[in-house]
Amino acid sequence: MSSIVRILSIAPALLAVAHAQGVILSAQGTKGSVASLGLQVQTTGNDANIINLQEINTNVVNECGRTLLAGNIDIGENTENQLLNKTVTSVTKGSTVAVSIDQVSADGAGPYTCDLDPTGNAEGATGQIPLNVTENDAASGKIALTLTMPSDLACIGASAGNVCTVRCFNSAAAGPFGGCFAVQQSDTTPSANQAATITTAQTLEGITAQIASNQKDLGAALKSNAEAADTTAQGTDAIKELLLSEGIATGASAAAVASSTTSSAATKSTAAKKGKGAAAAAAAAAAKGATGATTAKGAAAAAENAKGNAAATKGNNNRRRGARVFMA
């Protein structure tokens, strides 16, 4: 079935997700520091950030989920861009962060749950540190959250070596909606994040499982690349195909997928996500027909290739989750 037929078949449900909801507008840490912006999400237009644990657990997206207009969120790339643009707020142990969320609709309403990944992008779906959240009712459509950083905060992520990723999301059935933002810790000694000093997060068992997942999803990724109008649409088309292949895109989720596809056609975005780390190595091996990688020897080789590629538990922000094969 062509992409347009799939879109039309669920078009009546689009109204539920046609507009942004639950979008993080800003996150303000230490007084006088800059405010952080939500990773990848556009605060104007019909964008939103969906953080669905099933999508994360089935390897469709990273721990920050996806946006409707650009697909999977490459946490590492987005964090580095924000560091360069000086849009990462400062925090200290036990400090607070004021988060502003644009509710828009009932789907964007709270309560919101927030957590923190001290490595930036290595905790997957549920390994983050829970944060204490105080939530104020929406005033003029904006929800105000006050997050308290852990008293033993130790951010070690990104090239700076002192960055954490904060994630907030609600429980809306059409989402959940929310988003992620980076914070930079000022009262710590930055971690020296270099390829030679980072311990790979992968185990033999993990690599073997990842290869199997990549091989299973390769067909959907190749199909989305073939059908995408251009490279900009590949990211959102890939999400659509992967969700359909995993059996996740039903009901409200299907409407969100179709909405992302139709919106991306009219929006310029850096949509094609970049497969990095061990998953990229494994997926590339699968794409080249290297079936021997599923053996212990092949998986070990993939693990060796992953070293220095920034697929680490500490600080590199490019965990295997959600990495796929994309072709221009």
TrEMBL record:
The keyword Signal applies. Residues 1-20 form the signal peptide. Keywords: Signal. Transmembrane segments: none annotated. Residues 304-316 have a biased composition (Low complexity). The keyword Ribonucleoprotein does not apply. Residues 304-328 are annotated as: Disordered. This is Related to gEgh 16 protein.
